Amino acid sequence: AAKLLEIKDLHIGYFTEKENVKAVNGISFDLNQEETIGLVGETGAGKTTTALGIMQLLPERTGKITGGSILLKGENLLGISKNDMRLNRGSKISMIFQDPMTSLNPTMTVGQQIRESLDIHNKGQKKAELEKRVDKLLELVGIPAGRKYDYPHQFSGGMKQRVVISIALACEPELLIADEPTTALDVTIQAQVLALMESLKKELKTSIIIITHDLGVVAEICDKVAIMYAGEIVEQGTAGDIFAGKSHHPYTIGLFASIPDLTKDTKRLQPIEGLMPDAANLPAGCKFHPRCKCSMEKCKTEAPYRYEQDGHVIACHLLKQE
Length: 322
Ligand code: SF4
Description:
Layout: E1 3-15, E2 20-32, E3 36-40, H1 47-55, E4 63-72, E5 75-76, H2 82-88, E6 93-96, H3 100-103, H4 110-120, H5 127-140, H6 157-169, E7 175-179, H7 187-204, E8 207-212, H8 215-221, E9 224-229, E10 232-238, H9 239-243, H10 250-257, E11 306-309, E12 312-315
Parallel strand pairs: 3-8, 3-9, 6-7, 7-8
Antiparallel strand pairs: 1-2, 1-4, 4-5, 9-10, 10-12, 11-12
The chain binds iron/sulfur cluster (SF4).
């Protein structure tokens, strides 16, 4: 399959008078067409910053990409003008956020909002054609076209997220970034939204980056997984490799050990003992060492050894073959 996205050695920081926060520290991954990658990790791992970096929607005054490249079909997004990037958003790349209400306008009908998204990139289509596309988009996400005259508050949480997805898909983006798209939804609706994303991927040949705390979500729809910790990817591989339990990074093992029981009402991961380090004050050596049960002397000073086999990457000194 053709490569859609290549991220190489990406660094992103937040700079204020008080402190410099190193949110993303040299991550690399790539994504083929019609492929889904899951970025997994606890809050503060740099997942959302990575997404905002790709979208170039970092907070204007403080957020800054300080190194690396983001290639979309070979073109470095960091080298193009702000205006070209604005055009890319919504035509080539769309993003859906955790809470559907932050993306919906309560004073407009959902039909108007989908129309607005279509209008931005309208290439001379007539009104009637555009209306037909609105109907199609709603039907695509399983909402009867007649409901385009309704306002967001007339939809349930799951239906609202479907509307948000239809808006994000209005311009048939090549890349869809979904930041915790199902966290605000209950378990049954969550399954429906994931199934929807999976079928849309096939139908529209979209590639997806899904950001999540939840390994259950990853198992459901991801082809590849990148486990993030303190702004780095500590383990990366196919979903098959990660779930088959092949030689894991100690942090990944911790994540698996903390998978909640889905029969109980706990959707989020139970935290691993200890806290994610402050990104303004990262520890030396392996950034996981203060919490790692396997930590050795050199873990405190030396950046972890990167072990790679058949595309499965693990950054940990334990894998160093002497
Ligand atoms: Fe643990 Fe050391 Fe491996 Fe880091 S490098 S995960 S501290 S064993």
